[in-house]
Description:
two-stranded antiparallel sheet, 29% helix, Rossmann fold, alpha/beta
Amino acid sequence: MQNVLILNTGGTFNKRYNPLKGELEVPCDNTAVEAILRYCYNTPYTLIALVHKDSLEMNEEDRALIADTIQTHNASKVLIIHGTDTMDVTASYLALHVKNKTITLTGAMVPFSIDTVEATANFMGALGDLHVRNETGVFISMHGITSSHTSLFKNRKKGIFEPR
């Protein structure tokens, strides 16, 4: 099996409640993804934490850092944990700036710290797809569907990801 590069960029997936501030925050750690990775016994991976932001706060510098990290790493398969609000923007950026890699973005609408099910299901679905996908490109994997980043979108009225 190939080594998978896992980039943790923050987003709701990682948010935790800060009782001192009374709000959900994106922590500067990998606690949520490490809890899931404990069960990935047969997946060689490299985990790198980048950005640590809600995706609404991400900018072009953050996207350039993600692209540069992917380009300089030797892994051909990349899983990115990303906030759902601008996942499509980052996916489009990566499609323009990174070639010859298989990149899948996933995230969660509910923080792992509140309910582990959605984040775990999305992560494992994305990872499983990466293991069997032979084509390069940029993909989004959410709610049981993995598709080209141009074919899957966040329907904000329904609060789900669905095909175009």
